[in-house]
Design brief:
The protein has 344 residues and is of the alpha/beta class. The strands form 3 sheets. A 7-stranded parallel β-sheet has the order 3-1-12-11-10-9-8, with helices on both faces. Strands 2-4-7 form a 3-stranded parallel β-sheet, covered by helices on one side. It has a two-stranded antiparallel sheet with strand order 5-6. It contains 13 helices and 12 strands.
Length: 344
């Protein structure tokens, strides 16, 4: 692996930048705390990039991404918008775990697609990750990140998704039908998937320093150290009872593996689950974008006072409306260039 340059190494270990990052973490920690102020926290991280193919040359990709990051790292000194320097390798998009389970994943019309397995629900077997061509590049990127000896940047993970998301990707509507007609088969597969997810999360926690370990879409969903994340997209398809009975225990267990719980990403109509989520001690934040953002008022009033909301403003929920609903409390606004505008 080509070593990072002395200049980039110095920048990415600059004590000023480490202190700025840690101040940002401390401010973020207070957003849902008892002494939280009525002012939104504004987040917009900076990504390092490389033209190298990370699947073929993961170490080279990581080194060049860090070099690129060093050139913009001083953005972290912004006093109004928290701009953490990030590197993130997302092989196969939201279908990374699907591929580990043997699904055919292909790139078409600008995005990754996954084909259903065609096997009966309840038949999943835990994959062996040794010398796995999907897992190995992701593992090598994380190991190269640690070996680079940089203290400032944070590493975003591949999309580890969630047990339900993966199950629906692997089986399609057949899994949703099995949740009603063959609940024990559905439970077996959800357990198999979640056990793999927890194992991979555990490997990352053991490998990457806690202050630098983050989750998917890190530049817009960064949390205080020691927090996990899972994707709740497909919970929009479930009733409150089905989610609470079959899925919520797995989500709680995964987030509970992290010292400080974690976040669920939401992008559809999910408010039927607010009773379950408000009673889930492992859930410390929700991330709302697109359709989910339109329901900000329900999330703000029905979640616990210590649960933080990450909001991507949109046409259905502009910043002004979000501030009117929340008064700026418990709110992380994900937007570039707001800064002082979020104070008014």
């Amino acid at each position: 692996m080509r070593a990072i340059s002395a200049h980039a190494l110095a920048v990415l270990n600059d004590p000023r930048l480490i202190a700025a990052r840690d101040r940002g973490y401390a401010r973020l920690e207070r957003v849902g705390g008892p002494d939280a102020v009525a002012q939104p926290f504004v987040l917009w991280g900076a990504y390092g990039s490389s033209p190298a193919d990370p699947m073929a040359e993961p170490e080279r990709w990581l080194t060049e991404a860090l070099e690129d990051l060093a050139a913009q790292a001083e953005r972290l000194l912004d006093e109004e918008v928290f701009r953490p320097p990030c590197v993130e390798f997302g092989p196969y998009g939201v279908h990374f775990i699907d591929r580990l389970f043997g699904a055919h994943v292909h790139f078409h019309e600008g995005q990754w697609w996954s084909e259903c397995l065609g096997a009966p629900v309840g038949s999943l077997q835990t994959p062996d990750l040794r010398d796995d061509p999907t897992w190995d590049p992701a593992r090598l990127v994380a190991e190269a990140f640690v070996s680079a000896g940089v203290s400032v940047p944070v590493l975003g993970l591949p999309t580890l998704s969630s047990a339900l998301n993966v199950a629906v990707n692997l089986y399609g509507e057949a899994f949703l039908m099995a949740m009603q007609a063959e609940p024990e088969a559905a439970r077996r597969d959800l357990t198999t998937i979640n056990d793999l997810l927890r194992s991979i999360h555990g490997w990352y926690r053991r490998t990457v320093p806690a202050a630098q370990l983050q989750q998917v879409v890190v530049a817009q969903r960064l949390q205080p150290p020691g927090c996990g994340q899972l994707c709740g997209c497909t919970t929009a398809l479930l009733s409150a009872h089905a989610y609470a009975d079959l899925v919520a225990p797995h989500d709680a267990a995964l987030l509970g593996d992290y010292p400080h719980g974690g976040m669920i990403h939401l992008c559809g109509a999910h408010t039927q689950h607010l009773g379950t989520w408000s009673a889930m001690p492992e859930l410390r934040a929700v991330q709302l974008n697109d359709r989910a953002a339109a329901d900000l008022e329900a999330y703000f009033h029905r979640l616990r006072p210590d649960q933080v909301i990450y909001l991507n403003p949109c046409d259905e929920m502009p910043l002004e409306q979000a501030l009117a609903i929340t008064g700026g409390k418990r709110l992380v606004v994900v937007a570039n260039g707001l800064g002082g505008a979020a104070r008014h």
